[in-house]
Amino acid sequence: MSVKYICRHCQTAIGEIDSGAIDEARLGFHFLTPEERRDIISYSLNGDTVVKVICDYCKEALDTNPELSLLANPLQ
Ligand SMILES: [Zn+2]
Fold first, then answer.
1. C-alpha 64 to ligand 1 mean position (Å)
2. Domain coverage including residue 45
3. What is the whole-number distance in angstroms between the Cα of residue 63 and the centre of ligand 1?
4. What pLDDT, in 10s, does the model give residues 23-61?
């Protein structure tokens, strides 16, 4: 099992860490509200934890063009 970080906008794999060495508290997940956890954290069929974050590229693009965040989530 591992924890995989992917960009929520472009799906780029940002990083992966072995969850055997960590726990959710150390990842900071306990700071999130239940709604945020549902939005950010998901679990794949093989037991991996998938954390949706924003990669540097998308963060920069959003900082420059905040309206892009609306286009990236057309259903919200
Ligand atoms: Zn991205």
1. 14
2. 2-72
3. 13
4. 766 777 788 899 999 999 999 998 899 999 999 999 999
Q: Which residue has the higher pLDDT, 68 or 75?
A: 68
Q: What is the pLDDT of residue 67?
A: 79
Ligand 1: centre distance to CA 75 (Å): 18
CB 51 within 8 A of CB 40: yes
**Cα 6 to ligand 1 centre (Å):** 8
Structural domains counted in the chain = 1
Ligand 1 centroid–CA 43 distance in Å is: 20
